[in-house]
Amino acid sequence: MTETQKRVLISKIVMVLSTLSALIGLAFLFWILYVLVTNGIDAINWDIFLYEGAPPGYAESGLKQALIGQLILVGVASLIGVPLGVLGGTYLSEYGQRSRLAETIRDISDIMMSAPSIVIGAFVYAVVVTPMGHFSGWAGVIALTIIMVPIILRTTDDMLHLVPGTLREAAFALGAPKYKVIIQVVYRGAKAGVLTGILLGVARVGGETAPLLFTSFNDNFMSTDLMEPMASLTVTMFNYATSPYEDWQQLGWAAAFILSMFILALNIIGRLIIMKKGK
Amino acid sequence: MTMLFDKIFAHSTRIIAITVLLVVAAIFTILFQESLLSIQSNGFAFLSDTKWAPNLEKFGALPSIMGSIISTFLAMILAIPVAIGVAIFLSEIAYERLKAPIGISIELLAAIPSVVYGMWGLFYFVPIVRDIFGGMGIGMLTAGIVLSIMILPFMAAVTRDAMNTTPDILKESAYALGATKWNVVKDVIIPYAKAGIIGSLILALGRAIGETMAVTFVMGNVHKISMDITQPATSIPVTLANEFTEADSDLYYSSLFELALILLVISFVIIAVAKSYFLRRTRRTS
Fold first, then answer.
1. Do B102 and A26 touch (CB under 8 A)?
2. What is the DSSP string of chain A?
3. pTM here?
4. In this predicted model, what pLDDT tens digit does every residue of B46-97 receive, in sequence order?
5. CA A28 vs CA A6, A25, A41, A264, B50: distances in Å
6. Which of A153, A204, A258, B23 has the fewest CB atoms within 10 Å, i.e. the most exposed one?
7. ipTM of the complex in this document
8. In terms of Cα–Cα distance, which of B241, B150, B240, B268 is closest to A238?
9. How far is A224 from chain B (nearest CA, A)?
10. What mean pLDDT do residues A85-100 have?
11. Is 1.10.3720.10 the CATH number for A49-278?
């Protein structure tokens, strides 16, 4: 065998191996998706949206409390976290720029984006749950907000940075004060990117389970009171899936399916927004 | 008036940005403060003791710490070759038309909540491990495998991004000299994107070690160090997730907080190394 033939052969072998590993990886991942969809569709029916959690064995059992709780927790966390993240990102891109302070905030936010979320749950437990004396929806909201802000802050920072400096200079030349330049020129130029960042941030937080385990805890009944413990799809899914009752496990799959579809939808919409902008 | 509003806007954005730093500082301070009782009464034995018996007020964290290390190690060993394979496939092998759909589906799979991976592991993977290795099917091995599958999409996506930073002109020059695809990967892409690839892998490691839900389902929460990886075990996040709401004494709580602090410090350092040492350059250029 000549040197060239050997080289080509080795290359072929490696290429086959990496194609195989790609196939194996994708096979596992699609297996999970398949399991999620088949079990989810099996388990889903109208009762899920109409009834609250019931003891195992009751036919009239649903996820109403978890769906509403999830919407409230993620919704309120977004109402607080999105403006904070966008404004903080505005500081980094427009005011702080390359200063030491801004760079430090960037680095720390980057790290917090990947930090273990269960630790944030423990922190919120110490500062909110212990003083209050009981689990509460607010504690869950605060935990989710702490996770959400660094994500939105960093994407906003990156997206505002992409707006050309000449646009800002043109606005300044017309005599516009800085806040007007930012709100009317920079935000407008980066609208699609910032929106995508927000959607991805909300999607990321929507799937969080660990920080809710000991903050908002769980509740089998409908509650819209953030001062009381509140159910979420993720914690309910965890509790139901680890229970020995088959009807509860079914509800767990339904919750997993609804939650995953919601998060995938947010991700896909986010991508479409930025793709449309790119054209 | 405008001047005033301009100032208010500037200051409020700055205060908000600085709040991020304050919250992180508060997280470290509070966790340390809550751990003080445990640090004082358990001392350094906390890190080396293997007995975790809350009813006897004995708290040794070694099983949890070892569990975190072993399950993450298993996950990394399994996931790294596959992730690199997927990344090579996406950057060099796949047809142009396939790259986007496969790449996007991998990114979307990275977005699926880890609790779903855990649930899949419990219902579909535990029985397989039980059939092959016997025992309960719940344990270190299952946790490592489920964790590796959970971390795979993220790892593959960031590794591919790192590989894609290699300028096409470099690759084309190598191909023009008669290089095979493997030559290009080994001698052009990997040397060029080495820092980015290593950084991506370490970043994935930082995520895996703090991952809670994917492993809580399948680990078993048994505080025992066993040489047999098919036996039930525990890890720091698993202990926290299972026991935080059950803790009934001050020392128990404090010990759990110390575990949380240890986990935070470990993952903070790992992620910081990945970000600041290896990934700095890729960020500056983007």
1. yes
2. --HHHHHHHHHHHHHHHHHHHHHHHHHHHHHHHHHHHHHHHHH--THHHH-----TT-SS---HHHHHHHHHHHHHHHHHHHHHHHHHHHIIIIIITTSHHHHHHHHHHHHHHHS-HHHHHHHHIIIIIHHHTS--HHHHHHHHHHHHHHHHHHHHHHHHHTS-HHHHHHHHHTT--HHHIIIIIIHHHTHHHHHHHHHHHHHHHHT--HHHHTTT---SS----TTS----HHHHHHHHHTSS-HHHHHHHHHHHHHHHHHHHHHHHHHHHHHHHHH-
3. 0.93
4. 998 889 988 888 899 999 999 999 999 999 999 999 999 999 999 888 888 8
5. 33, 5, 20, 18, 35
6. B23
7. 0.92
8. B241
9. 22
10. 93
11. yes
Residue with tokens 């052009």: B188
Backbone angles phi, psi at B60, to 5 degrees: -115, 125
Indicate which of B123, B182, B189, B207 best probes the interface with A, i.e. most A CBs within 10 Å of its own CB: B182
Interface contact A154, partner B, CB < 8 A: no
Is the predicted pLDDT of residue A37 greater than 80, yes or no? yes
Cβ separation A91–B17 shorter than 8 A = yes
- Closest-CA residue of B relative to A39 is B120
Q: How far apart are the CA of A177 and the nearest CA of chain B, in angstroms?
A: 7
| Helices B250-272 & B190-210 angle (0-180, nearest 10) | 170
Does domain B48-278 bear CATH number 3.40.50.1820? Answer: no
